[in-house]
Design a protein that fits this description.
The chain is α/β, with parallel strands linked by helices and 549 residues long. It is built from 15 helices and 29 strands. Strand 23 and strand 24 form a beta hairpin.
Length: 549
């Protein structure tokens, strides 16, 4: 651990048990992950150490060393430059889990262009908005799932988009990535002078996956990768000679949380399964085959995994498991523990942050708790009147920036001063998420500030009720919202998707209501229960409570 490359950029203060107590960062003014981490790892390990194992849906397998990434990132940087991509240009990457995503990310970092990852689920309307909002000049995309066609349909309304590049398959009117990079030199000189890339420059943009309104664009600087040292080393607990799997499409922020920066800073191997649709029975055998040692996945994926008969699979290589992306229902925690003997270590963060709260190594997890604040952020809970929330009192999760902006926190929303000031003012970044803190300092998630239900003077967070309802074996998905009531102001409503083989009935409604009454405070039970076939969701799969009618 002592000679890991990330140690060059941080000072860690450990407690008497050897666990992280505090962390500070020390990096050059021109810090750049591609040059100062990946190229250095290529010098350190060459072709002797595998940096990534990539497996296609058809079983094709490729192993990339740090030397491979050095060469391919240079080839890709030269290729992008030959097409006219330059420092400051915004380049959208719609590449699913294709290995070209990692070539492209590192290449854009080397050029000083801004990477804008996006999901392949975007349609013409979504693309036009994003192309124009971020002033996208180039796009590198998968040829699958009609992505290229939707981009072509958006061209007339997207004047900034000049360069279109596809991978894996040629397409008329498009540049072909795979062929183009092979013609290029595998050396690339680090820009200097007027072209020098500085640590504070824009490096990465993500469209937020909020549940209301048009998505905002969170901007991160070149220091952002360092913010994920804690993510990988102290939360994921990745192993130097291990293999880490984070299940996420590259279009989402979770991909760079778990499939790029912190993992390579910790010198672990990243495992990528480039699937089309998630099937648990396809991925579970891979744990043994590829000796996967650490796992991070959102609760949705874990729910699919625990529905399988896990006793049929050898998961003994798995040493540690973490969960983030949405709040974790205790039932998922219990079933995963029963199946694997591993306690899911929950964490919390946003597109705008790195890991802000988590059950770090050395923490004794409390089932249902997000853990404690990551010491790189000054995380506080703010009551409705702006004061500090007391233990047991609900408050908004905020990050105190009065003494400076911490590494890992975003720069603001791209060309949207109004939205930036709404979220970040008076020395605090406001997450918009509610929690309460117990006497041991653990935080417990309540919900979004605008999701809180106010009924008969009570403030009710939907997540707690959803967690109770999800314990019922016949409930597949659930969303709890408030609906107007002339007497109480609002009452609690549960909108439920039942598992296969179950049909909604008045008797089942009553059974659910009684169960909630018995397992949480009676005033929280859903007075309204509805059964539906589907719930409205964002592109990223988060339930849009505001759209439930």
């Amino acid at each position: 651990m002592e000679n890991l490359i990330y140690k060059r950029f941080v000072k860690e203060k450990l407690d008497k048990n050897g666990f992280l107590e505090d962390i500070s960062f020390d990096y050059p003014d021109n810090f750049n992950f591609a040059y100062d981490v990946m190229d250095e790892l290529a010098k350190k390990h060459g072709n002797k150490k595998t940096a990534m194992i990539w497996v296609s849906k058809d079983g094709e397998e490729r192993k990339f060393t740090y030397e491979d990434f050095y060469r391919y990132s240079n080839k890709t940087a030269n290729y992008f430059k030959s097409l006219g991509i330059k420092k400051g240009d915004r380049v959208m990457l719609i590449l699913k889990r294709h290995y070209q995503f990692w070539f492209s990310m590192l290449a854009l970092h080397k050029i000083g262009a801004v990477a804008v990852p996006a999901t392949n689920q975007l349609m013409k309307k979504d693309l036009v908005y994003r192309f124009n909002k971020a002033e996208i000049s180039a796009v590198v995309c998968t040829p699958y799932d009609e992505v290229a066609r939707e981009i072509e349909l958006s061209l007339k309304e997207s004047p900034s988009l000049k360069i279109r590049i596809t991978v894996n398959e040629k397409r008329d009117g498009w540049e072909f990535f795979d062929e183009g990079i092979e013609k290029m030199s595998d050396t690339f000189e680090r820009p200097s002078g007027d072209d020098e890339i500085l640590a504070g420059d824009n490096m990465l943009m993500y469209f937020s996956s909020g549940t209301t309104g048009y998505p905002k664009i969170a901007v991160h600087s070149f220091t952002y990768p360092l913010g994920h040292i804690v993510t990988a080393a102290w939360w994921h607990k990745v192993e130097e000679d291990g293999v880490h799997l984070t299940i996420s499409d590259t279009g989402w922020g979770k991909a760079v949380w778990g499939k790029l920066y912190g993992q390579w800073l910790s010198e672990t191997c990243i495992f990528v399964y480039d699937f089309e649709r998630f099937h648990p029975d396809e991925i579970l055998p891979m744990f043994k085959k590829y000796n996967i040692t650490t796992l991070c996945a959102p609760p949705t994926i874990l729910r699919f995994l625990i529905k399988e008969d896990l006793s049929k699979y050898d998961l003994t290589s798995l040493h540690y498991a973490t969960v983030a992306g949405e709040a974790l229902n205790p039932e998922v925690y219990k079933q995963f523990y029963q199946a694997t003997g591993l306690r899911l270590m929950e964490g919390f963060g946003q597109t705008e942050t790195t890991l802000a709260v988590g059950n770090l190594i050395g923490t004794e997890p409390k089932m249902g708790s997000m853990g404690k604040p990551n010491p790189q952020f000054k995380v506080e809970l703010m009551a409705a009147d702006g004061s500090q929330a007391k233990d047991g009192e609900e408050g908004e999760i905020v990050i105190n920036t009065a003494n400076g902006v911490p590494v890992g926190l975003f720069k603001g929303y791209y060309k949207d001063e109004e939205k930036t000031k709404e979220a970040w003012h008076d020395g605090y970044y406001h997450t918009g998420d509610m929690a309460w803190r117990d006497e041991d300092g653990y935080l417990w998630y309540v919900g979004r500030t605008d999701d809180v239900i106010k009924s008969s003077g009570y403030r009710i967070g939907p997540f707690e009720i959803e967690s109770v309802i999800m314990e019922l074996p016949y409930v597949l998905e659930c969303a709890v919202t408030g609906v107007p009531d002339p007497i109480r102001g609002q009452v609690v409503r549960a909108t439920i998707i039942l598992a296969k083989g179950y049909v909604g009935s008045e008797e089942l409604k009553k059974e659910i209501q009684v169960y909630v009454k018995e397992h949480t405070a009676p005033y929280k039970y859903p007075r309204v229960v509805e059964f539906v076939d589907e719930l409205p969701k964002t592109i990223s799969g988060k339930i849009k409570r505001k759209d439930i009618k």
